[in-house]
Amino acid sequence: MSVFADLHVHTTNSDGAMELSEVPSAARSAGVSVVAITDHDRLHPDLPTPVSVVDGITVVHGIELRVEAPDGQHLDLLGYGVYPTPELADELERLQADRKQRGQAIIDCVEDRLGISLDLESREGLGRPHIARAIAAHPETKYGFSDAFEELIGTDRPCYVARDVPSFERGVELLSEASGLVGLAHPYRYDDPRSALDLTSELDAVERYYPYGREVDTRPIERAIADNNLVPTGGSDAHEDVLGKAGLSKEEYRHFRSTVTL
User: Which of the 8 DSSP states describes residue 144?
Assistant: First the structure.
């Protein structure tokens, strides 16, 4: 399928590699006409409206918000067409303070454990991929990017630090008030996809297209879409500069636009 709209892209505003100004060129290289910027727990300061045109590319202002489900697993919600409310702005400020403290704790642990200096200071927007890149780039370590997660900073690894995230209910409330549409991101990346999909009864959408890197059974997603009248979304979850690995066709994007106020 030709991807017309890649609705899951990250920039340097969180843990992506691209500046916003670089996104249009990457989109054109991939034949993509629409991009949603969905930085982690952070709105992009250069996207003041729910939808913009940046160098000829339609850019939807979005966000990826980490929440805690009732069963304890962490899920990611995607909000599209964001125009921030004071309540969302306050929560994102709290999350960024928590992210900054958490990032420094992970950096300190890695440096102590490996006996090195990463020359990296925690900041708002910093995520574990930044730390993994710094570990992989350090001349005195044997770790690659993936190794850093698998052996050091991934969940339950020795330098992992948990985050203080809002509940699923609170996250849905905040995004529903500030966004045109709220969906569940990448259902098959969670430990219990079925439990995650059950929660789509409280949402508007679900990420139907996603590059998992493995075969997945999409039938439960299709059932959730039918049972809960969900809007299918999709995107590459790009953290580098390659877009269009997954997303919506032109016809599917028209359906998305018809159901969300942008």
Answer: -
